[in-house]
Design goal:
With about 325 residues, this protein is of the alpha/beta class. It contains twelve helices and ten strands. An eight-stranded parallel sheet has the order 9-8-7-6-5-4-3-10. Keywords: Oxidoreductase.
């Protein structure tokens, strides 16, 4: 049973080697202002503030965003919300990379011109002098690593950014390692926080990427911890898709997640969830939190009830056997890691 918000009290964990502590479940805001394929806005400003209020009420203090979420509205809404609070009590992370102006190739990637412009703009939208963590949203192979790290180091030295992170869809540990080696040799700020996709059915980072993060004490804050909603239990292999669900509005989602292999994983997830008296979503989040090398999953939600359910996962304890069963349901590319 999901407790009330007042009964949830999120703890904190070290954010890798930064010296900061982060909420054990971070709050992801990518749905704020997002327009679906069907033309619907997933979360408007009123609900965005309600969700931020709920996260705060549960003890959460780490808000993750990006400059392209909602075309910039996401950051503006977060900024308005923060304006009524003590900024220093909250850790805010944002990201830069994706193209923002049609016909302008320099408005994409991590070239110096684009990064500096984008950071100035996101700080204005957030109404703050700095972000605690700045991620590159994806890796830009057209910008040399040395150029990138010099640019990012300048932002840290100016006080506009405190720590650096790298977000990725596919494992790229060697690129982060190379960039950090350049930074170390030059006395520049390295990447200390990583944000990969990771959940029970998306297991690409198991192996070199996750092992690299563990060895270097880099924070790992996975995005999509519920497989874009697949692991919530709302989908059934033998039934029609729920109306207004992500699957109903996205053909890409259907192809990526609604597979027999993934439904087999969900069968094991349902079994463990019943054993611990939790929902599939809570159990999937608990599994992720139990994974060696994972710092704090990034959770999101469309409603306060969904967010409350997800945050309650912090209090669920799985046995080693249950963790092993879930892990084995869909082995990653490197078994045993």
């Amino acid at each position: 049973m999901t407790p009330e918000l007042d009964d949830i009290d999120l703890g904190t964990v070290p954010l890798g080697r930064t010296g900061l502590r982060t909420s054990e479940l971070q709050f992801g805001t990518w749905r704020f202002g997002r327009v679906t394929e069907a033309g619907n806005v997933e979360i408007d400003e009123t609900r965005a503030h309600e969700l931020l209020d709920a996260y705060e009420a549960a003890g959460g203090r780490y808000v993750d965003t990006a400059d392209v979420y909602g075309g910039g509205d996401c950051e503006r809404w977060i900024g308005d919300w923060l304006a009524e609070r003590d900024r220093e009590r909250y850790t805010v992370a944002s990201k830069v990379y994706w193209q923002i102006r049609d016909g302008d190739p320099n408005s994409r990637g991590t070239n110096r011109k684009n990064v500096r412009h984008r950071v100035a703009a996101l700080l204005d939208r957030l109404g703050t002098d700095y972000v605690d963590v700045l991620y590159i949203h994806r890796w830009d192979d057209e910008t040399p690593a040395r150029e990138l790290m010099k640019t990012l180091n300048g932002l840290v030295e100016s006080g506009k950014v405190h720590y650096l992170g790298a977000s990725t869809l596919r494992p790229n540990a060697w690129k982060v390692a190379r960039a950090n080696e350049i930074a170390r040799n030059e006395g520049w700020e390295p990447f200390t926080v990583l944000q990969p996709r990771y959940n029970l059915v998306d297991r690409e980072i198991e192996g070199d990427y996750l092992e690299f993060a563990r060895q270097r004490n880099l924070a790992v804050s996975p995005w999509s911890p519920l497989g874009q909603g697949f692991l919530t239990g709302k989908y059934d292999r033998d039934e029609d898709l729920p109306e207004e669900s992500k699957a109903a509005e996205s053909s890409r989602f259907q192809e990526a997640y609604l597979t027999e292999e993934n439904f087999d994983v969900h069968d094991e997830l349902d079994a463990v969830a019943e054993e611990v008296d939790a929902s599939p979503a809570q159990t999937a989040l608990a599994w992720l939190a139990h994974r060696d090398g994972v710092t704090a999953p990034i959770v999101g939600a469309r409603t306060v009830d969904q967010l409350t359910e997800n945050l309650a996962a912090a209090s669920i304890d799985l046995s080693d056997g249950q963790v092993d069963r879930l892990t084995a349901a869909k082995p990653g590319p490197y078994d045993g890691l």
